[in-house]
User: Fold these one by one.
Assistant:
Number 1:
Amino acid sequence: MSLSQGFSDSSPISFAMQDPAQHPEKNSENSLPVESKADPPPSMPCVVYLASVEGQIQGRVVNLPGVTAKASSERDLMRQIVKQFKAQVAEIYAQGREPDWVDPLPEKQPGERKVFLPVHL
């Protein structure tokens, strides 16, 4: 069938392109949900300044005090940062408090670059 010929009503492609409300027999309770009623997991802003120092990558979270790490690769560094960040934020929330986010962010030091990580708890 060429594209110029179009699709018949019985064509699977034609059916997929039609309004599902017109085909209630295909819209059963076993269908996957189109949207979820559950709230999405909270996402926390993790702002990291990275620098290469003596053959290692070091990073510091600048919007939440106390989270720093060093590693031989950026991937390992980010894994450490995210683990510490999640642990610190989870502990703060477990105590019924809100994190003391640093705002405005401090200036980057020479050689540092900024990375933004949205972290889900």
Number 2:
Amino acid sequence: MLWTGRILTGLFALFMLGASIAPKLLQMPVAEATMAELGWPAGYSFLIGLIELTCLVLYLIPRTSVLGAVMMMGLLGGAMATQIRAGSPLFSHILFSIYLGLFMWGGLWLRDQRLRALFPLAREPSAPPRSRDVAALPVSSQ
């Protein structure tokens, strides 16, 4: 599980760096054009890139990974709201933040035992009551 989580985390980090953070921090024309299409004023892409990078670094540090994931979800929620406001397609654009969030949290869940204990996939079945425990149960009066 640990290595699968690390791989998912690495893929998420590489995607965020290559597809979102680097174009904004390098002030590539495609980043400004995309932000303008979504209704953002000029000059905000660099600041958003810095915020994304901060969230990603916090996510990658084991001690602050949950904080980074929560902050990244806030950022992804804002991206989703922007896509909704812009009237973008549902499955390819609006829900893309959900897809990224699931990928990010999945990687963290697989690499962090404390998170798996907090959110188990399946609860262990409770043991059936023993015969002496059944005798101690209250009887309903119907």
Number 3:
Amino acid sequence: MHRLAPHPHFGLVALAAAVLAACQTPPTPEPPPPEPRPMASQTCPPVRYPATAMRIGLQGQVRVQLTVDLQGHVTQARLVEPSQLTIHSERDPDPPAAQRRAATLTLERAALAIARRCTLPPVVGNYAPATAVLPFHFDLE
């Protein structure tokens, strides 16, 4: 009777397969989405009315686009043009253009400074930064 001998490399192949199976780590499960938190409105420092703008009676709205990281911190702020500003002054209803432009710049800079210090609710269900547009109102009344 003829007896079949195992192939000399059969044992090595089985051993290699067993070692590979033991060394492979199971796939890492996807991280769970962040726990939803109650939605709260943005928190921003109080608006400080620039004296230059107040002096000529400039008021209105400055809109700022914010880029917010996953924790709700502002990483970027830029103006959304044009700012909607008007002069409300009985003393000088038509100030010189240079004075008006200087006052406009101070309001826009004030809005940007406030926006950079705002905190928005954390981004839930999204793994990329988000953007939002916030209006900042400057009213003399």
Number 4:
Amino acid sequence: MLRKRKMNSELFDCFTGRILGELYESFPVKKVLDIRSFDTEPCVEFYKTSPHDMEEILKGTIEFLEENELITFDRSKNGWQGGFFSGATLSLKGLQLLKKAPKSIEKDYESIGDKLIKAVKEQGIHRASTIVNEKLWGLLS
């Protein structure tokens, strides 16, 4: 049970990093969050997650981010339809959180959103998961 909870938590962080990074990069253009694009995530492959478990954790992650006002999606499509959420974008709260900068801004300052984009593209999803854990959730507490 402890292993499953740890796996769920780590998959949640991986998915959160990827979702927020992608929505930050595409902002303000809305995106479709498609489950098939998450099938090859390194964290999914690492845990050898069943398709059903992966789908449930991903759906829960997206709903959690929406319920906590970090993202929005097109509710008229009833959310999870055929394996995707359509019209997904950052909310104002999500955008502000990802653009958050320290009081003493430096020229080379990288926002949390920029760090997530870079991590997902260049450093791997595990790095994005670390950023979510260390930076993002710390700002919300």
